[in-house]
Predict the 3D structure of the following.
Amino acid sequence: MRLYKFYAFSLLEILITLSVLGVLVSISYPSLQSLLQSSNRKEATLLLTKIQYQQEQWRSHHQNYALLSELKVPSTSENNLYQIKISLIEDDNYLITAEPINGQLGESCGTYAMDKYGPVEKSSSGKIYANLDCWQY
C-alpha cells in the first residue's frame, strides 16, 4: 500500500512569493526597456551609415547625391521604428534623417541626422538632432 504525500502551500506563502516576483519584475522592467531602446537606436544609426555609404557610391558615378527613391531605400526602417528622409543641400551635400515613429515615439534621443561628414547634432537652420552620446552603442 502506497501513501501519497500532498504538499500544499498556505495563502501566506503564495502571497509572499507573488510579492517577491512583483519586486523582481519592477526592478528588471526598466532595464529591459532601456535595452530595447538601445537596440532600436542601433537600427537607426546603422541604417543612416548604410545610406551614407550608398550616397558616396552614387556620387562616384553621378554629378550629385541621390534621393531615397534613386537609392531604392525604403522610407521606414526595417522594424517600422524610424521614418527615413533625405534632403539634398545644394549639389555637394545631403542630410539624412531618421525620425522616431510608432514604438520609438518619445525616445530620449529624438531624430538622428547625418550628412556626408558624419553625424549632425545641429543643422544650419538651427534644428537640434540626436547628440553624439546617442550614436554610441
Q: What stands out?
A: The first helix runs from residue 11 to 61.
